[in-house]
Amino acid sequence: MLLLVRSFDEWRAAARQLIVRRAPPESVQWTGQEEGGDLLSGAMPELPPQASQQPDVAPRVPRQLMEMLQSAACYRDPGRWAFLYRVLWRWHHGEQEILSMADEDGGRLQHMVKAVHHEVHDMHAYLRFRERPESAGAPRYVAWFEPAHDVLHEVALHFAKRMGRNSWLIATPEASVLWDGSTLHSTGPLMRSAADIDDPGEAMWLTYYRSIFNPARLNADIMHSHIRSRFWKNLPEAAVVPQMVSQAAAGARKVGQLDTVGKRKGATIPIAPEDAQPERQQPSTLDECRRCDLWQNATQAVGGQGARRAKVMLVGEQPGDQEDLAGKPFVGPAGELLDRAMDQAGMDRRKVYITNAVKHFKWEPRGKRRLHKTPGQREVMACHYWLETELEAIGPDVLVALGSTALKSIMQSGSVALKDHFGKPFQHEGRWVVATYHPSYALRVPSSEARAEALAAIVEALRTAKRLSEGGPPEDPMAA
Amino acid sequence: METIDKLEILADAAKYDASCASSGAPKRSSEGRDGIGATNGMGICHSYTPDGRCVSLLKILLTNFCAYDCQYCVNRRSSNVPRARFSVQEVVKLTVDFYLRNYIDGLFLSSGIIRSADYTMEQLVAVARELREVHQFRGYIHLKTIPDADAALIEAAGRYADRLSVNIELPTQNSIEQLAPEKSVHTIKLAMGNIRLKLDEKEAEPKAPVFAPAGQSTQMIVGADASDDQRILSTAETLYGSYKLKRVYYSAFSPIPQSPKSVPLAPPPLLREHRLYQADFLLRGYGFQVKELLPASGNLALDIDPKLAWALANREHFPMDLNRAELAMIARVPGIGLRNAKRIVELRRMRQVRYADLSRLRCSMKKIAPFIITADYSPARDTTPSETLRRAMADAPEQMPLWPELQAA
User: Fold this and answer.
1) Is the Cβ pair A102, B361 closer than 8 Å?
2) What global pTM score does this model have?
3) Does residue A62 have a cis bond before it (omega within 30 degrees)?
4) Phi and psi torsions of B83, nearest 5°
5) Touching check for B67 and chain A: CB below 8 Å?
6) ipTM
């Protein structure tokens, strides 16, 4: 049985019926060309009778495979329709490995698909329009291209998106498409060779192409490996490549500059170095802190923020990812939780001072993220200088240590444990200290009850701190 | 000066910037609309120059007048180069003309620092605004961000540009202080951080105005200072993590005319740049960390690629059973890329993976043979010393120049 198909849609209609009628691939011959004789055009020829005892099973083809078949249909190969039918047949009979490159047919299918995609890509990339004078009317832009596969239609859709209302024509040896600004028109071949149109605008492109090339990096093999040889003859820049290569090889490699640019008259800019310095805020001493190495991987040092004469100072551990970018303490998720806790404790964020024991963000790369890393005691001690400066400047009566790092910094001891002081206010160097969880602990604990408990503990600590700052007793008189 | 003369100077001055990609923009189309330009997220290289690098964007400087004196830069104020300055209109016209002829996917615009950081940034933004608002240009726009510019200007730039970039240029603070006296690592990091915060905001608030949808990138020059590959990659890793960069570009230092004494006279081997890109890809795509690729200070091997180097240094993971190993580990086998690793995992859902499958997947058999186990292939616990394997797999040694003094001249 001999079948004529001229498009993917015709093939699909025919293949569908053949599958239903259980016509094995060996029983069908396909052709894509009308060559006289007794070929049957499009119609279904003497299909084998349906096996009546079994119901029809139309092929169910996943989209991925259908797209592959459609692409492979653009591959110029006289055997393509027969091959596509064999693929469909095998799929229909449960041979799923047809999708794998490791299968022989699967490999060939993928190879065809890849070649077609490659051709589409190359035509997107290496097609060159030439502009015609406005007086010549439409089409304003004309291109000639010699594709190896039947990709013209798909490529035309790409240029319709790209060119807006400009009119253009793409001619190939087999067919042409014209875009009039709103509609695509397909015709047979209109030209026989590269567009014979003089476009003065091309001189700009050649100048750009020559200038953007860096002779110090001459590596023509890579260029040739990217642009396949059959495209070169229609690329305007091909004409200047040999000269560029030979000049670069002959000595321009020493410096990257283009020869013609080097020959022009140069100019140095008469400006005194001190006038060239951009105006910047003077870095604070904290910005310039090099007491430990944490500054290297951080964006900036994050100092404390809050009321100048706050009675309560909250001390956290260190800035996190968000704080590091924003330059303010407690603005990330932990900051939001702290705000909530302060609300519940009746504490006004504007009336307290919030800071961290360590001023630079310590982290470790984990993929494209920064994974918080607890600062070591050496870093805590190195940074204590800044906490001390803040304590002197603000002079709070009560410190809230949020987490163990804060407590260690306040006590200047690496051996002090949070559990020994947790929720029990004590005096240290003339100030009350209240120790509780760090807000991110309350974000991190797995169970929701534990999270609620942790938040409640933080709220309680803040209440205590507030009471102490107002001269109240360390224990809540209402608690009993 | 004619536009074409300016183009010659200002394209020549821009070619040292490695970045050229035009990928990552959201899909846009001009079909049946006023204006021109489309993006499909992929980006296209429209040509290659004889240095092997692609041309996908019109990459130029707005001007190469520059008040700064960065020693590695051909446009530094003390450099005796021809100077030129495009008008906003000229850049816009060039972009549109090139775009309509299908030479480019869009514009990559940078500039020397003139008058002030803010003034320079305003000019860059003016070009992008004119393209987008007057010409309704929907192609790709990449703007180089001047780190000292006002945050409001950077925000405006992000409204018009698909990608913003702030160049770190050198991997250490010390090198920047020495070679780029007017630059400041502090402001560079702040600018990158600022852009990341805006990107995060946009991500959290989909209805917020567009901001640099193709993200931000940066560039580092390799071989202008003494930093080794470990330093360079660690800096890259820090930048990726901190500022969610899409890419770090590495640009081998090109010797420049009338080079100052502070920078080397000779370029580093281009292969070093290539190895850095390979290593960078392992960081971004394969989940490697710098400390795995380079546990101690030093450079990447030039004779073998970084993944093979890692495998040879970590033989305890091999040979790896491809029918059992996790996807991420399969991708770590030298000669198996991410895509083939996925294909192997897909195939083994249907049946066992066999040795011949791998050659059909076009894996380099010579490279992977000592590192894998398949259903029908199992190298007896391979005891070949790594050094021997390395010699067998290294790129062919290059002939040393016979008369180096002649070739250097």
Assistant:
1) yes
2) 0.92
3) no
4) -115, 150
5) yes
6) 0.93
